[in-house]
Amino acid sequence: MPSPSPLQGPTKGAYKPPLMSASLPSPAAVDQFPHRNLLGIEGLSEAEITYLLERADIYVAQNRKVDKKLSVLRGRTQINLFFEASTRTRTSFELAGKRLGADVINMSVEGSSIKKGETLVDTAMTLNAMRPDVLVVRHPDSGAVALLAQKVDCAVINGGDGSHEHPTQALLDALTILRRKGRLGGLVVAICGDILHSRVARSNIQLLGIMGAQVRVVAPPTLLPPAADRLGVEVHHDMRQGLAGCDIVMMLRLQSERMHGAFVPSLREYFRFYGLDAEKLAAAKPDALVLHPGPMNRGVEIDTDLADDIDRSAIAEQVEMGVAVRMACLETLAARP
Amino acid sequence: MSTITAYINARLLDPATDTDAMGGLIVEDGVIAEMGANITAPKAAEVIDCGGKCLAPGLIDMRAFVGEPGFDHKETFATAGAAAAAGGITTLISQPQTDPIVDEPALAGFIARRARDTSAVNVKTMAAITKGLGGKEMTEMGLLAEAGAVAFTDGNRSVADAQVMRRALAYAANWDFLIVQYPEDPSLAADGCMNEGELSSRLGLAGIPVAAEVVIIERDLRLTALTGTRYHAAIVSTEDSVAAIRRAKANGVRATCAVAAHHFALNETEIGEYRTFAKTAPPLRSEPDRAAMVEGLADGAIDVIVSDHSPQDQETKRRPFATAEPGIAGLQTMLPLALELVHGGHISLLDLLAKMTINPARLLGLDAGTLAPGAPADLVLIELDVPWRLSESGLKSKSKNTPFDGRPVQGRVVHTVVGGKTVFDLTADHA
Hints:
The complex is a heterodimer. In chain A, 36% of the residues lie in helices and 13% in strands. Chain A has helices at residues 29-32, 46-63, 88-99, 112-115, 120-129, 144-149, 167-181, 199-210, 239-243, 267-274, 278-281, 304-307, 315-334, and strands at 77-82, 103-108, 134-139, 155-161, 188-192, 214-218, 234-236, 248-251, 289-291. Chain B has 15 helices and 18 strands. Chain B has helices spanning 77-86, 105-118, 141-146, 162-173, 186-189, 198-203, 210-227, 239-250, 261-265, 287-299, 314-317, 334-343, 349-354, 358-364, 426-430; strands spanning 4-14, 19-28, 31-36, 46-49, 54-57, 59-64, 89-94, 122-125, 152-153, 178-181, 194-195, 207-208, 230-233, 255-260, 304-306, 379-389, 408-418, 421-425. In chain B, helix 4 (162-173) packs across helix 7, helix 7 runs parallel beside helix 8 and helix 8 packs parallel to helix 10.
């Protein structure tokens, strides 16, 4: 009899990783995850998300070994196609692909071909002709990754599209929470900050909702989408009320160009009312965990002491989970025959 | 030992409690302790016989420009305070278009302290909506409110950019702050210096069309409906503006507006042969517009009467009409001009007083504007029927720019009290 998944509902006792092998792609992958691409969390089922998290959990252990290299993706080509600057996400995907044995190419298209007038679809067709097995794509426009996916024959993983989705970030956040709290269902999660422009927030709202967590968003009205209350979340403008009794506090990054009057009057006013410090965090549960997708603006959205408090903050852990989650996604989509 | 004062034999007028009856008040340590028909003054009390005159809450003036800091030669908190006290005003709301502009929490704090130390009446400040009144980046409203700002306005400028206005309204909604808009589209107003119409055509002066005001108000009402914010048109002058606000209120939009005394007391013909004392912002309008102000006050479309006090020294008024500064020194003329509407049978005395007491108090969240026990003893004693003439020489303001010199009026402030302390007494003033 299979042991019950730790992701389904509250579990008592410590979290135990599932018994699966990291050495081979699961032959059941196509059944467990019947999608060609990972374009977003929206549309995934609870079981599919659970599957990806269980696979990722195995890779966490694998990545802590001295010899991290596997041959799951030997002979496969992975292209990281980034139309927007990124260091962490690109590095994380690159490392994930290399540890699985894939040949990884990074392409920064920021400005280059675009300046020459090549369209997104032209770029897609050019790359497709090089016969890659998986494309990891980040693009500043919402929906651009899905458009590109229609034009290529290989699997596509969304590495972040505009203000739409960033599915691997939501998965790594979920894995971080799961390993600390033993469950996702029933937790109260407050997502705080620039919800309006955040793809991380949209993916997390989707994922946490599917997994049965109760989601709140906390932001000034200028940083909320106009119909935030229709996204299945509780909307709060007051940070203390929004954090009251919550298990998880997810802070979002505030882009500097939005801090000087258009959306928020100033850094100091933002930090005063929406920056996470020990005093505001006191409203949350005593064991509440703090997450941040990075890179942090210390003193803007998060107090620097709090960010470094390993008992409260799982920010470094999130980065580690990121590599494992991306390995699970690459394996699931690219290791198919 | 506590100080007790009993005001007896008064016609008590308190719109907040719908009171219009003979009676008295007991004030203890600057706070109203008792109000009613049959009060008994304690033995230790100082007794003031009001002689049957009207005792009302001290007036609150939501729009008064005080020149401090930066324009001390036009007005200071001390001179504005003296003028306000003589006009029956016990709380005035200063405007942010000073130099420097009130867009910084530290400056809001400075004004509160400076006014407390030098002014006879209470002074609260509005702070800017946008930094430097530039109309682009919003100010630190949360921190400004903590420093004492009671509402937000760009003073004598409109927030013209619709997106900036929308975001400011949305941001203010966070704390339910009041956004106060000076409604005048800058591109339509451009170089205009008076109402656009027949008279401006004859005088050869560039006009400001009615539409300059109405387009901003109608746009803002849409944005206010979108954000759910409390919106207040700082000053309206046209029939169409009042109609738009009346309609929005009926649709549940949280909008209010104010009118300056000169906009229901005068029309554009006051300009005559280029009299700069009749140059105002917004301009004096046509007679139908003036009549619409009276109607709007009577039916409740207009919530508040303001002085729109704009002190201007001689140098800025003694210029060709087009280049003279607009504005009227209005602190001492607001009440007598408003009382004309009561004497003319347009509005009841209680309804009129509400627009200068409890209505602005509620909009700004002030603990004032009523005679109810527990409220601060900010009082005005009015001799309702006495005829007299307004005069330039009677103005206590540092600037004497008034078009009302010599105007016969009826009803006069005889005594003003702030926090239980007499700040104006007509008999002493004449002596």
